[in-house]
Design brief:
The protein is of the alpha+beta class. Helix content is 29%, strand content 35%. The protein is elongated and about 75 Å long. InterPro entries: DUF2850.
Length: 140
């Protein structure tokens, strides 16, 4: 009886370990960032598009590196112009990337197909604050 219980416990532990392992591999898979990422808030004529695929990373349809690292949250690129780091932010309904390095100018990107979840043109938090202040002080 003890041998049966122990074998069931071992089988359950192996199955649970395998489930956690495959879940971890899916979480850190670079396929989670594959696709076109479109810059948020940039003018139409200078909107940057990042593309991640099996071939590497492209910026505005030009190959910048043949490899990149993704750890489940951060994408790291090493290009001829330096080291670039992007953090995956947003929600599953609005997946976004935020550029961490270089820090200036700040950039945010949204996955193609989700553009309707954010204002794309002229989005500027400072403008939103100014319009809120103007509205507050102009009402009686």
């Amino acid at each position: 009886m003890l041998a049966i219980i122990m074998s069931v416990v071992v089988v359950l532990a192996v199955a649970l370990g395998f489930a956690f392992y495959t879940s971890h591999l899916n979480h850190i898979s670079p396929k989670r960032v594959y696709g076109n990422w479109i810059e948020i808030g940039a003018p139409k004529q200078s909107t940057e598009i990042l593309t991640f695929s099996d071939a590497g990373a492209m910026r505005n349809h030009k190959l910048v590196t043949t490899s990149f690292q993704f750890d489940g949250r951060v994408v790291r690129l090493e290009t001829g112009s330096g080291h670039w780091v992007y953090e995956r932010v947003g929600t599953p309904r609005s997946p976004q990337l935020r550029r961490i390095r270089p820090a200036l100018p700040p950039q945010r990107f949204i996955l193609e197909g989700y553009e309707d979840t954010v204002p794309m043109d002229g989005y500027n938090p400072a403008q939103n604050r100014r319009s809120a202040l103007r509205e507050h002080f102009s009402t009686k």
